[in-house]
Amino acid sequence: MMSGACVQQTQPLRFIDRELFPYLVKVTKLFAAHIDADPRDVVLVPNATTALNSVLQSVPLAKGEVVVFFDTTYASVKKMVRKVCHERGAVATEKTLPVLHAHLSPDALAHAIVGLMPDKCKVVILDHISSNEALLLPLSLLVPLMQARGALVLVDGAHGLAATTLSVTEVGADYYCGNCHKWFCAPRGVGFLHVNHARLARIAPDLPPAPNINVVACSTKTCERIGVIKTTAWGGVDNPITSHGYGAGFLSQYVWDGARDYSALLAIETCLVFWARLPCALGYSQALVGWATAFLVARYLHTICASLLCLALLPNHKHPFGGRQARIHE
Questions:
Q1: Do residues 228 and 216 make contact, with C-beta atoms less than 8 angstroms apart?
Q2: How many Å apart are CA 39 and CA 110, to the nearest integer?
Q3: Distance CA 201, CA 42 (A)
Q4: Which residues sit opposite 223 in a β-bridge?
Q5: What Å distances lie between residue 21 and 155, 160, 244, 262, CA to CA?
Q6: Residue 265 binned pLDDT confidence (cut-offs 50, 70, 90)
Q7: Which end of the chain has fewer CB atoms within 10 angstroms, the N or the C?
Q8: 263 near 8, Cβ under 8 Å?
Q9: Longest CA–CA separation in the chain, Å
């Protein structure tokens, strides 16, 4: 494939009108397979912040219902929650993550966190790997417990992709938001949003079904229906930016939101090739993190369970309690 930046600049009209969409569809399908997702449930966005805002502005949230987040939640996400709750009369509640104060196994931690959930809890926000503490939460245990309590689960996976082997199907959350420019090594300017439409359809209240959208192919002589796009009314996520794709389904809302540089999105294919050619890289990195975790926990962090600590070895961490730089979440 020719360089995205080159084609965009030399033949911008041809690129945008005739070539961009097929490229984006191809890249989305490849990336969805990489994270073990149905490509109809995945959209590419500029960053995790965009994805998180999209979910929080779309989630069905009524007056008096509660959104729970934790002291480890990224600062800007806390602001998103408080803003949305203020606008809708909902309640934003911050809880203290027990793992920072007690030695707990993953199973005990999961049940301790669920025990913190208040009544009318509608949405719970969980980090996959917390930004400041580098804590790898046991999502496979937490998510189903939260959902059994009637909560929608939104996972902030800004640090999840490639820092761990990601399967959004195994995670099982209702919404998963992530970045590609961190451990996945994509250029800045690309993240992703996964919406678990199948589960949302199962738990949706008894409402009139959302209308299907006919996909039509036209020639110079006639038009014919070639397929159907199924839409999700309850729990679906709308793009905060309204453009040509509005009203045409989840994927169409996000595939085009105006003229911008799509090079970072198209570069995902090259990143996937890189990871496919270096299957040992992630295993080696994770083994190294495991060794560092055991070493640091034994020497400095006696109260934190080693099995929950990821310690993603961010730059300039010369000492476990020093040299921290601000995390770039956007």
A1: no
A2: 30
A3: 16
A4: 218
A5: 28, 27, 13, 11
A6: very high
A7: N
A8: yes
A9: 75
Q: Which of 166, 190, 193 is nearest to 251 (CA)?
A: 193
Whether the Cβ atoms of residue 51 and residue 178 lie closer than 8 Å to each other: yes
Give the residue from 30, 49, 54, 41 showing the smallest Cα distance to 267.
30
Listed residue (72, 77, 131) closest to 97, CA to CA: 72
Per-state percent for the chain, helix, strand, coil, to nearest 5: 40, 20, 40
Q: What is the pTM of this model?
A: 0.82
The residue written with tokens 């007690």 in the block is 102
Q: Are 131 and 161 in contact (CB under 8 A)?
A: no
- Flag whether pLDDT at 311 surpasses 50: no
What is the CB neighbour count within 10 angstroms for residue 268?
Answer: 23
Q: Can you tell me the distance from the alpha carbon of 48 to that of 156, in angstroms, rounded to the nearest whole number?
A: 8
Beta carbons within 8 Å of 234's beta carbon, 6+ residues apart: 60, 200, 204, 205, 207
Placement of tokens 């990336």 in the chain: 31
Per-residue model confidence as pLDDT tens digits over 210-258: 556 555 445 455 545 545 555 556 678 988 888 888 888 888 888 888 7
Q: Which two tokens stand for residue 240?
A: 């905060």
Round the CA-based radius of gyration of the chain to a whole number and report it. 21
